[in-house]
Amino acid sequence: MRTVHDAAGGRAGLLALARAWHARCLADPVASHPFGHGGLHPQHVERLAAYWGEALGGPPAYTDTMGDEAGVLRMHAGNGTHRELDALVVQLFDGAMDDVGLTEQPLRGVLHDYFAWSTDRMGQHPDSPDSVADDVRMPHWGWDGPVAR
User: Residue 65 belongs to what domain range?
Assistant: First the structure.
C-alpha cells in the first residue's frame, strides 16, 4: 500500500503544500504573528516539508539531517495556549490543500486529520520548552491515523 507521503506527491508534493500553507499563514493577520518574531530558519518551508514527509511515511530526511522531535516541540513550546490560532492554521492548511490540488478523499481527510492532530500536539507544552523530554520521538501517521513504531 502506498504511504500517505507518496499519495500526497512525495517530496515535491509536500514541498508545494508547505509553500502554499506558509504563504497563507503569512498573508493572514493572525496566523502571521508566530512567524514575525525573527529567528525563522532560512529553509523553514523545506524543513517543514521534510518533517511532514517523514511523519507521513517518507524517508527520514528531517531526523537524519535537520533535527529531532524534541527540538521541534521545544520550538513550539512556551507560547501559552492558543486554540483559536490552532484552529485557524488548520483552516489555512485545508485551503493550502485546495491551492495545490489535494482535493480527493481519502487523502484530503487523512492530511487534514494529521495536521489537526499535529497542531494540537505542538501546543502540548504551553508553559515552557523545559517540559519536553529529550528522548521524544517523531510520531508517524498512516491512512488510519497514528502509527506505532
Answer: 4-143
